[in-house]
Amino acid sequence: MVEGPTADEAGFRQWVAVRSTPLRRKAYLLCGNWHTADDLLQETLIAVYASWPRVASSRNIDAYVNRILINKYVDDRRRPWRRERPVDELPDTADERASSAFVEVEGRDSPLARALAALPVTQRTVLVLRHTDDLSVEEIAHQLDLPAGTVKSRLSRGSEAIRNDLERSLAITPSTPESTGTTEGPR
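and the corresponding structure tokens:
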């Protein structure tokens, strides 16, 4: 039997060291912005830390944390007046190497990020859970407390919207006999 992390601070640190990178990526896919994703991840980890002894003893820590991440994301989208307010002066300067790394990653991921950002929150959430965690429709339905049919519908509509957006933005045409110039079909 594989034991999970311990219910103390060392166990939390160990769990964060292993799971923070995938959680950050998931937060980015939800938000479409690394800075907002970092804030969302921080808020999620604070909530998890506050109840870590109880969380560490649960059967599925990742499902619990995913639920917190999604709830915090949806909550932030619903209540924009609760966001932090800008300040007149920034407390520190930007690292130029980090900026260039962000530009490189965002350039590579920008068509997909734009397509995800254009989706409604409900469709984006189910797509991110499906493709980052490889969850089944039933698992997503359980995590979001939705009927499986609703999850299927959101997955289908969201996938179609992303496909159409990427085809438009990348000028991809579906492979059909008309587009390839071939006219031979099955004989």
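(Above: one complete record from the training split.) The chain is about 70% helix and 0% strand.
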